[in-house]
């Protein structure tokens, strides 16, 4: 199977988007990528790895080196999905030139297909700059977690008419600037509908209703790794219990000297 391409993803907007929504999940490691890759169109190396695997309080202290290390692992572990790597906070907002320096390192050192960055109208010039220089950009509007301090929390966005209009204008601006797809996070359904109808690139929703052209979730969230998850997450597994349960049984067997048994023990011939 040949790897999907960014133009193929973008064209899905017009090729039966209702029957064939885009499927995206996050991946941070090679083995996780191997397991998810055959079932997805896109794998996102999200800066959510800050909380999910590094135990950080937010995505703000995730570094370029962290994203590159995990991005390279996910590219090595996949052969079908388009791999997109998040640009971390502080590596792209200052200027298009700063963004190009960081994005070109991500592209060159991971082998990914494109980058994702947060922001709407304010990032349009940067998106156009990167796109014109051969770097596909996925945009991210609505609830943008790197702006948590400015937004005042992780609550759903677009509750006022003014905010609704701002988010739709953000989506239009990034699409016009050349973004090949837009993640729409944590917005009321009417915003997802308006944005998806207006822009000519796929919208990929997370907490943005079924009306987007695709969906994404943080894999650990949908696996049931965490006790508390946002309302928009559906848990398809109870992996936390599976892991704790295995640790309980292992600890019991070690303490009872049941493990290792004869099958796990080397003996002289
Ligand atoms: O970092 C991330 O995982 C993301 C997705 C939730 C869209 O940006
Ligand atoms: Na992210």
From TrEMBL:
Q: Which residues bind Mg(2+)?
A: 47, 86, 118
Name what cofactor the protein needs: Mg(2+)
Instruction: Give the SUPFAM superfamilies listed for this entry.
Output: Phosphoenolpyruvate/pyruvate domain (SSF51621)
- Pathway per the UniProt entry: Cofactor biosynthesis; (R)-pantothenate biosynthesis; (R)-pantoate from 3-methyl-2-oxobutanoate: step 1/2
Q: Which UniProt keywords apply?
A: Cytoplasm, Magnesium, Metal-binding, Pantothenate biosynthesis, Transferase
In terms of domain of life, where is this protein from? Bacteria
| Active site residues according to the UniProt entry | 185
Identify a single GO molecular function assigned to this protein: 3-methyl-2-oxobutanoate hydroxymethyltransferase activity
- Pfam families given for it? Pantoate_transf (PF02548)
Reactions catalysed, semicolon-separated, are: (6R)-5,10-methylene-5,6,7,8-tetrahydrofolate + 3-methyl-2-oxobutanoate + H2O = 2-dehydropantoate + (6S)-5,6,7,8-tetrahydrofolate
Cofactor mode of binding and number, as noted: Binds 1 Mg(2+) ion per subunit.
Where does this protein hold 3-methyl-2-oxobutanoate? 47-48, 86, 116
Question: So what family is this one in?
Answer: Belongs to the PanB family.
- Protein name, entry field: 3-methyl-2-oxobutanoate hydroxymethyltransferase
Q: Gene symbol?
A: panB
């Amino acid at each position: 199977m040949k790897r999907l391409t960014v133009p193929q993803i973008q064209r899905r907007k017009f090729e039966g988007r209702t029957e064939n929504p885009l499927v995206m999940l996050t991946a941070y490691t090679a083995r996780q990528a191997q397991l998810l890759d055959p079932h997805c169109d896109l794998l996102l190396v999200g800066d959510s790895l800050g909380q999910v695997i590094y135990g950080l309080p937010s995505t703000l202290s995730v570094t370029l080196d962290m994203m590159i290390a995990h991005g390279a692992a996910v590219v090595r572990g996949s052969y079908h999905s388009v791999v997109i790597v998040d640009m971390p906070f502080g590596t792209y907002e200052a200027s298009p030139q700063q963004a190009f320096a960081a994005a070109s390192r991500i592209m060159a050192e991971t082998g990914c297909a494109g980058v994702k960055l947060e922001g709407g109208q304010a990032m349009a010039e940067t998106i156009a700059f990167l796109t014109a220089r051969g770097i596909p950009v996925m945009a991210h509007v609505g609830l943008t977690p790197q702006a948590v301090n400015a937004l005042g929390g992780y609550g759903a966005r677009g509750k006022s008419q003014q905010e609704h209009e701002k988010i739709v204008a953000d989506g239009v601006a990034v699409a016009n600037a050349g973004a090949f797809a837009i993640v729409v996070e944590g917005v009321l359904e009417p915003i997802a509908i308006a944005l998806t109808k207006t822009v000519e690139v796929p919208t990929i929703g997370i907490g943005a209703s079924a009306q987007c052209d695709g969906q994404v979730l943080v894999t650990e969230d949908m696996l049931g790794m965490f006790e508390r998850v946002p309302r928009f997450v559906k848990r398809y597994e109870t992996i936390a219990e599976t892991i704790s349960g295995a640790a309980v049984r292992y600890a019991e067997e070690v303490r009872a000297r049941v493990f290792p048994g004869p099958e796990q023990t080397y003996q002289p011939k």
